[in-house]
Design goal:
Blueprint (H helix, E strand, L loop, with lengths): L1 E7 L3 H15 L4 E5 L10 H4 L5 E5 L9 E5 L5 E4 L12 E6 L2 E7 L8 H27 L2 E7 L23 H12 L4 E2 H5 L26 E5 L1 H4 L2 E6 L15 E5 L19 E2 L8
Keywords: Hydrolase, Magnesium, Metal-binding
Pfam family, one: Exo_endo_phos
Family: Belongs to the DNA repair enzymes AP/ExoA family.
Amino acid sequence: MLTVSTVNVNGIRAAAAKGFTEWLATTPADVVCLQEVRAEPDQFPAHLRAPDGWHTLVAPASTKGRAGVALFSRIAPTATRIGFDAPEFAASGRYAEIDFPNLTVASLYLPAGEAGTDRQAEKERFMAAFHTHLRTLHQRAVDTGREVLVCGDWNIAHREADIKNWKGNLKNSGFLPEERRWLTSVLGETGYVDVVRSLHPDIAGPYSWWSWRGKAFDNDSGWRIDYHMATPRLAARATSAVTERAETYAERWSDHAPVTCTFDWELASVPVPRGSLDDRGVTSGSGTAADS
């Protein structure tokens, strides 16, 4: 079985102090995808730079204290990549991939945007470039007999069932008609499957983000914007999808909750010496964090 979790930590240093460390120590996940780490590798808490038993890849943003993604894996990747073929976003800290012999797993932090502003225009440019990358990634998987899983904070609620107050957000970034059409094209034209929705087709949510403000969390007035997007053959092997919502407001260590999917899939691996740092910036066991 293969278990993969994704979560926007809303700052790795703050999350570590509030409960992320304990969560990582107990998660059954084989791969963990993180977004919005907001730290350089050497700014990670020491115990998270290269946790025992994990291989790490960190892709910080060139703008200090912003964005940043990371992947933790219990099995050594055979290759890693930071960014995709879009020069504008090469150092944005919004995308990274790790390869295994039969699977590519990616961590994505898509820009949030703000309707009618330059931030929204940037988001739309990212979406256009990333759509091309998703098609290329899928075709490469088809050609090589591998699978792809793109996890992360996509910052778009796809359907009315994915947002509690959908009527009040029709003109807001994250639920704009053009954003939702783009996500539909990801699921159609590029051939990916929304794993959580495929297993839970007829329910509201399960939401994965709630504002810190007001009673949003207590009232479960949330958004489902954290996705596992998989190639069809892998998606068909999904056996469970769970949003790990905190029991209480006080127990939250991020404004997002981890979304964890399990697949009837054996993750092929190749041996890599423990504690080594290879030329792709992957660490294992102990030592310093991956330097991207």
